[in-house]
Amino acid sequence: MNFFSHAAVARRFSDAPAFVLGAMLPDFASMLGARLAAVADPTLARGVRFHHLTDHAFHELPAFQEQSRDALRTLRALGVAKGPARAVAHIGIEILLDVTLGQSASAQSAYLAGLEAGRRPELIASLAWPEDVRKRLIDLLETLERRGIVLDTSSQVIVERIKRTLARRPLLALADDDPPRVLDWVEATRDRVVSSTPALVAALQAELETRLTS
C-alpha cells in the first residue's frame, strides 16, 4: 500500500494525527533512502507498527492476490516483460486503490492532519535519525502538504505514477514502449478496482481487527 492508503486505513483505528503520521512514516523513510530507526513517541511508534501490520495483512488478502494475478496475465498478454509486468501488477493495483480512497473526504482530512503533525518538533525529535535526515523529512512533509490532494486521477496520470515509481529500480523499470500497454491495462482495470475497493477495505479492516486482538 502507498502512504495515502495507509493514512486512509489508519484513521479507521485512530484519528490521532501522530498515529496517522506514523502509519505513513516507513514509506516516507523509503522515499528519503533512510532506514527507519527507533521511534520514542508512543503514538507515532504505534502508527509505525500499524503500518507493518497493515502491509502484511493487505498483501495476504485473497482479493488483492487475485487482482494482482489477473493484472499479471493481462500485462504479459499485452507484451510487458515479466519483471516489469509483475511490478505493475502489484504497484499498479495499489495506486488504483490510492486513487479510489482519495475520493473520501475523511481520508483526505486524516492524511492532511497526519502531514501537519510533522510540524510538531517533539514528534520529529523522537526519531532516532541524524539531524539532516530529520530535516529532509520535514521538507518532504511540507512539500506533500503544499501539494495537497491530487485531483487529477486520469489514467495517464496513473501510468506516470507507475512509471516514476519503477524508474528507481532498473530491473523493473518500464521499457520505452511499455506505457501505452500499461495505459490499456489501467483503462481496462480501474472500474473493477474502484467497485471492489469497499469490500477489499472492509476485509482488510476485519483482518486487522483480528490481528490486533490476537
Q: Secondary-structure element order, as H and E? A: HHHHHHHHHH
Separation of termini?
Answer: 23 Å
Class from secondary-structure proportions: mainly alpha
| Residues in helices, as a percent range | over 70%
Count every helix, treating DSSP H or I runs of 4 or more residues as helices.
Answer: 10
Poorly predicted ranges: none
| Inertia-based shape | globular
The proportion of strand residues reads: under 5%
Based on CA atoms alone, the radius of gyration comes out at: 17 Å
- Strand count: 0
Question: How does the major sheet shape up?
Answer: none
**Chain-averaged pLDDT:** 95
Description:
- The chain is an all-alpha fold and 214 residues long.
- The protein is 75% helix and 0% strand.
- The radius of gyration is 17 Å and the shape is globular.
- It starts with a helix and ends with a helix.
- The model has no long low-confidence stretch (mean pLDDT 95).
Blueprint of the fold:
Elements: H1 3-10, H2 17-32, H3 42-59, H4 62-77, H5 82-101, H6 105-117, H7 121-125, H8 131-147, H9 155-167, H10 179-213
Helix pairs in contact: 1-2, 1-5, 1-6, 2-3, 2-6, 3-10, 4-5, 4-10, 5-9, 5-10, 9-10
Short description:
The protein has ten helices and no strands. The chain is mainly alpha-helical and 214 residues long.
Task: Name the descriptors.
214 residues, mainly alpha, 10 helices
